[in-house]
Amino acid sequence: MSTENTLEHKTTKADFDGKQEYTITVYAENRIGLLNRIAIIFSKRKINIESLNTSPSEIDGIHRFNIVIQESYEVVRKLARQIEKQIEVLKVYFNTNDEIIWQELALYKVSTDEIAEKVTVERLLRQYGASAVVIRKDYTVFAVTGHREETDALVKALEPYELIEFVRSARVAIIKDSAGFHEKLKEFEAFEPGEELVENEFLDKGEKIFTM
Amino acid sequence: METAQETMQQTETKAETSKTLFKGTGSQVLLNGLIEEGVTTIFGYPGGAIMPIYDALYDYAGKLEHILVRHEQGGIHAAQGFARASGKVGVCFATSGPGATNLVTGLADAQIDSTPLVCITGQVFAHLLGTDAFQETDVINITTPVTKWNYQVTDAKEIQEVLAKAFYIAKSGRPGPVLIDITKNAQLQLEEFPEYVKCNHIRSYRPKPKVRVEYIEQAAELINAAKKPFVLFGQGVILGKAEKEFKAFIEKTGIPSAWTIMGESAIPTAHPLNVGMLGMHGNYGPNVLTNEADVIIAIGMRFDDRVTGRLDKYAKQAKIVHLDIDPAEIDKNVKAEVGVWGDCKETLPLLTNLVNENKHEDWLAKFRQYNQQEIDQVITPELYPAGDEMTMGEVLRNINEICGGEAVIVTDVGQHQMVACRYATFNNSRSNITSGGLGTMGFGLPAAIGAKYGAPEKTVIAIIGDGGFQMTPQELGTIMQFGAAVKILILNNRFLGMVRQWQQLFHDKRYSFVNITSPDFVALAKSYYIEAAKVDERANLRAALETMINHEGSYLLEVMVGRENNVFPMVPQGMSVSEIRLK
């Protein structure tokens, strides 16, 4: 356990104070109204949520939120503590992009005629790793999973060829250094907090994952 | 009603629990649960969607006392006053729709001042949710930002567990308000219920951590090396019931200690290490010396902007040790060198063990020097005014002389509040009840009613301005009907004084809509059969105050004070605490 005299996480990041993309991972009970409780923590501070995903987690009955925002480390840390303070929230992590594996899914609807006529389109799709989800006489739906820049790039590339509809999902992310939530949950379910109490992690010096 | 009966019949056939102790309605089991939680007093107001609960309440006379307020805002402020005076959870009832929305100000007030409340609201039948039914409003979403937790019950079988959770959440950790919204069908639903079990663990909620000794050690090291240590304490000491532990800590270390208005009365006013009040209208020494201290030990306080003034010029030279039960407060406004997360009832004794005995005589003498300047320039003229006009300060001085620090002082918001917090003397904890964080005008009268139920053996004095009194005067009706012996002291300067003061000092004396007229308060009180008097000259003040305080029942006294007196010292907004003005 760290005995160093600081609350500050040491970070090697150059833009410690500058805004950057953070992915917040929230483990929470699956309860009606909790999404609103979390969302207003952002809107109260006039912070825009760029992407929000709720899904089941590795543990039955525990929900996992992924929230993406552009903010400075200091702001994200305070937000994370406010979120973790909510009764039904078990744990909050926040990570920069290099600390997570993340994906977004995009769907593209294009005219089948256009694709059939123009070989370049097919090449484009192959180049972007797209897969055909539906092929009909009148239109075809392609799917791409990847980072924002990748899905965006295909939108640009398809623009000349009658892109009828486009939609992109929220980000889903896995924390590289996380060992999952199973062990943590045991600590939470224990009646008395143990010596290695997780909630005090934020007082520790920086591990590879930021946690509060 | 037909639907309700249908629901009842349906659920009746379903009941089959083995260990059943009680067969009854959701309303009955709710009231039984309140009794299990030790509730004796409820402040409330009935209405359509909460009628089944009120119907059940009819049979609980002698077990549960219900105070019928005159407005739901009055009900929740009374519950707050009750909680603050007694240290117990305050409970209030309101119906759906307007009843529930009228609770919002009180919830926000309780949330920001960490007051434990459980509020029960009625709601339309579950099958009507979302249909814009009569008196339907989305109470859960409206109150989400201003509650520690809230929950909508649509099935009576949830009531016991939700109520137990509500009380646990409201009073544990950093306390706060909880709201339970119960649909009418759940109130009516007939069920067989198991024994009521109190809640003491929620897996997603850690009210307090196991204290980590290394942070205590680091804190002790800083404190032991400090030449000019300074303690700032807030309501956390009172909420944590850690007054003794706090006193032991400061007495061992000899550290001068100043309070936020929420922390006032945690130690007696006369304690030699009590150096006074922090913040915008706080004392001179504590504000100036904040920027001279080398180590600041903040205990159960949250560095509100009214305490810190300009943040980038606040205590930059000092190393900060911050003890708080809420980890979100550590490093929120002021960066801590050492953050000690925990219940100060546990952390303070650990810290006291590790710190050296000390007497910071020279450092304390500095506080006394500043205090002397403040006495000469501000306090004496306020408490012993030379002019004919009465000051708020001299009224407070007289109260102190009569009550000797034993009264519970409840204030409203504004100049009188600052004067009362500055000058009232207290011997006992939980004696200063004020709307600190939210600054709710209209808080005073209903909160004083609640405080009287929370501390019936105490003299409760509500000090209220002429403006604030006119926000919730309807609660005189509650006093009339239920006889709470509250002493109401209106300090009338015929202005919205604090706003006027700002307009004078910062807006070029453009007195924009601060000139407020008042009804005949004495006649108003008498129309509610409450004894009342008015004083407009000093010669009668002392006797009038004595009459009020010695009067057996409730009493209203209106004191006409100087129109354009200002509260000083003052840290103007946007200025540093060390730039505090004495005039």
Low-confidence blocks of residues of chain B: 1-17
Q: What is the architecture of the largest domain in chain A at the second tier of CATH?
A: 2-Layer Sandwich
Helical content of chain A, roughly?
A: 25-40%
**Tally of individual helices of chain B:** 24
Strand fraction band of chain B?
15-25%
Q: What is the CATH first-level class name of the largest domain in chain A?
A: Alpha Beta
What is the strand and helix layout of this fold?
The complex is a heterodimer of chains A (about 210) and B (about 575).
Chain A: E1 20-29, H1 34-43, E2 51-56, E3 62-71, H2 73-85, E4 89-96, E5 100-111, H3 112-117, H4 119-127, E6 131-135, E7 139-146, H5 148-158, E8 163-168, E9 172-175, H6 182-189, E10 210-211
Antiparallel strand pairs in A: 1-3, 1-4, 2-3, 4-10, 5-7, 5-8, 5-9, 6-7
Chain B: H1 2-14, E1 22-25, H2 26-36, E2 41-44, H3 51-57, E3 65-68, H4 72-86, E4 90-94, H5 98-101, H6 104-112, E5 117-123, H7 139-143, E6 149-153, H8 159-171, E7 177-183, H9 184-188, E8 190-193, H10 213-225, E9 229-233, H11 236-239, H12 243-253, E10 257-259, E11 274-277, H13 284-290, E12 295-299, H14 305-308, E13 319-324, E14 338-341, H15 344-354, H16 361-383, H17 392-403, E15 408-411, H18 415-423, E16 432-433, H19 444-454, E17 460-465, H20 466-469, H21 476-482, E18 486-492, H22 497-506, H23 521-527, E19 531-535, H24 541-550, E20 555-560
Parallel strand pairs in B: 2-3, 2-4, 4-5, 5-7, 6-7, 9-10, 9-12, 10-11, 12-13, 13-14, 15-16, 15-17, 17-18, 18-20, 19-20
Antiparallel strand pairs in B: 1-8
Helix pairs in contact in B: 2-3, 2-8, 4-6, 4-19, 10-15, 12-15, 13-16, 17-18, 17-24
